[in-house]
Write a structure and sequence with these properties.
Layout (H helix, E strand, L loop, with lengths): L1 H5 L6 H19 L4 H4 E7 L4 H9 L8 H5 L2 E5 L19 E6 L2 E7 L4 H12 L14
Parallel strand pairs: 1-2
Antiparallel strand pairs: 1-3, 3-4
Length: 143
């Protein structure tokens, strides 16, 4: 099957082969001890009624999981009106919402206070992702 896909034997063969290779690489990263893909998360600190959180939800949230950034650092929402999660004890709490905190292996790597709008979010997020141990940023492009 793999050679059939790689040789274009199936519809969209090259595209499917590329996706297959990226999927295998992603699985390898997830399985590898200390792999950046397994350890990174993008926390979204939010609270009910936050208009900037709602704007993020409308402009970015629907596409985020399908982007390379979403694969590198899946979005995890933390409601600031709820008790602070125990696994985030090493992450400083915040008042400003939304705040995006990139964590890797339970440690804070970078923080973005506020939502700057869709025109600036991806570039700022890419700068944050470049600080991960893997060092690769992702411009929010869908695979």
């Amino acid at each position: 099957m793999f050679s059939s896909i790689a040789n274009g034997g199936l519809r969209g063969g090259r595209r499917q082969a590329g996706r297959l290779v990226r999927g295998i690489v992603l699985l390898a990263c997830l399985a590898a001890p200390g792999g950046a893909a397994a350890a990174a998360e993008l926390l979204m600190l939010e609270r009910p009624g936050c208009v900037w959180c709602e704007r993020f939800d409308a402009e970015i949230a629907p596409a985020y999981p399908a982007t390379e950034a979403g694969r590198i650092a899946p979005l995890r929402r933390v409601d600031l009106t709820e008790p602070w999660p125990e696994d985030l004890d090493d992450v400083a709490r915040e008042r400003v919402t939304p705040t995006f905190v990139l964590i890797e292996a339970g440690q804070e790597i970078a923080r973005m206070r506020g939502y700057p709008g869709d025109a600036f979010f991806w570039g700022l997020l890419d700068d944050m992702l470049a600080k991960l141990s893997g060092g690769a940023g992702a411009r929010g492009e869908a695979i």
